[in-house]
Specification:
By secondary structure, the chain is α+β, with helices and mostly antiparallel strands. The longest helix is centred in the middle third of the chain and has 16 residues. The termini are far apart. The strands form 2 sheets. The chain has a 5-stranded antiparallel sheet. Strands 1-2 form a two-stranded antiparallel sheet. The protein has 4 domains: 114 residues, Helicase, Ruva Protein, domain 3 (Orthogonal Bundle); 93 residues, no CATH class; 76 residues, no CATH class; 57 residues, no CATH class.
């Protein structure tokens, strides 16, 4: 089978909705994976070598279930991630790899601050890339029935990287969720966007800074990054607005936001015709940002709103912006209180997603809707007062 035909078949498998199969007996699950691998065109020897000594990882499942850091509000979460170490070393690396960033910005239009932010937050500039066996992590998460449609295709991508001598089933290690290298990319993303930027004939995201940064830039571009455009800007409000119009799913032109009293806190707002959303991570009394279309691309890298906002702000900070102004937001809810709120909202017919104590996008929008019903400022920030109103209703 020619390489081109094999790649075409591989891409069909990687994008197939049928790859959501999971659970059952692990031996049968593994047998099915091997059969599919043979069906793509890999030899029996290659398949046996790749899956030799594979095992399920309880540590991976434990990590998947215990992402407690995302429970913290933005004003606590962001300073914790944007440490003095990351700021200092970020600026050093911006200077050290200045010529690399110049080339990346010329080719892809992706800001050096954005790339350095991901590089810092994901692995502390490559120092902490993870110790989980990547193959076993992918197998475990594909077998687990929470998100098999995400991880099953990654197994076949890792198999292709193995054939290319860019992945070792027993030695490649990374994050618990299967990401590899300095900027933590999944195998499928490496296949599609990996670049041998240092010219050594291999794509190595674990030890080649140039490969990692170029690959990350290409990936962001493939996800819809608009070259040389803004992603996030801290703003002021000169007057109160209808808070229900805030949130990532509420979009207006910059001209419209200006007419509502929005102005740049440190720099002028961009062209009046550009679209943006006004986001209030801790309500109307906390920090305020305009998020532009590039901000949405961050969600393709990480689904957590609080993480994405932190990464986007850190990118600005690395490029010279001050740290955000925290404001004086009302006290939020504890994890158990948030679960109670989600449970009550769900009983009332509102969509909150999983009842997990995390203020995700669905819970935020439902909070706004119930705030409007109760004639409260609909700023999507749940307070103890709101919870008590609902419990006493």
């Amino acid at each position: 089978m020619t390489f081109i035909i094999k790649v075409l078949i591989l891409m069909i498998f990687l994008n197939s909705a049928a790859l959501g199969k999971c659970g059952g007996e692990f031996t049968q699950f593994l047998s099915d994976i091997k059969e599919e691998s043979l069906g793509i065109g890999y030899t029996e020897q290659t398949v046996n070598e790749f899956f030799d000594n594979v095992s399920l990882s309880s540590e991976v499942l434990k990590a998947d279930r215990a992402q407690g850091i995302f429970l913290k509000p933005f004003n606590e979460f962001a300073p914790r991630l944007i440490s003095d170490y990351r700021i200092q070393h970020g600026k050093k690396n911006l200077k050290k790899y200045s010529s690399t960033f110049d080339k990346i910005e010329k080719i892809y239009g992706v800001s050096r601050g954005v790339l350095t932010s991901f590089w810092a937050l994901e692995t502390d500039f490559g120092a902490v890339q993870g110790k989980f066996n990547t193959r076993d992590a992918l197998i475990t998460l594909a077998f687990d029935c929470r998100r098999p449609q995400i991880f099953r295709p990654q197994i076949f991508a890792a198999l292709e990287l193995f054939v290319r001598n860019e992945f070792s089933p027993n030695e490649t290690r990374g994050a618990w969720a299967g990401e590899i290298g300095m900027v933590q990319m999944l195998p499928k993303d490496i296949l599609e966007n990996g670049i041998d930027a240092d010219g050594d004939g291999k794509i190595n995201l674990q030890s080649s800074t140039r490969d990692a940064l170029f690959s990350a830039a290409k990936m962001l571009t493939s996800l819809g990054w608009k070259a040389n455009e803004l992603w996030l800007q801290e703003v002021n409000l000169t007057k109160e607005i209808d808070w229900f119009e805030t949130g990532t799913d509420r979009i207006k032109t910059v001209r419209e936001w200006k007419s509502l009293g929005v102005s740049g806190k440190y720099t002028d707002l961009p062209e009046a015709s550009e679209n943006a959303s006004l986001i209030l991570p801790q309500g109307r009394q906390g920090p305020k940002f305009l998020a532009y279309s590039n901000f949405n691309v961050f969600f393709e890298w990480n689904k957590s709103f609080i993480y994405v906002l932190t990464a986007a702000h850190f990118a600005n900070q690395l490029e010279g912006s001050p740290s955000f102004t925290p404001g004086n937001p009302e006290k939020g809810l504890t994890k158990n209180q948030m679960k109670l709120l989600q449970t009550k909202l769900k009983k009332l017919g509102y969509e909150v997603g999983e009842i997990d104590g995390i203020l995700g996008s669905k819970t935020r929008r439902s909070v706004q809707e119930i705030q409007r019903v109760l004639n409260q400022p609909a700023d999507a920030w749940p307070t103890i007062e709101l919870l008590e109103l609902l419990l006493n209703a």
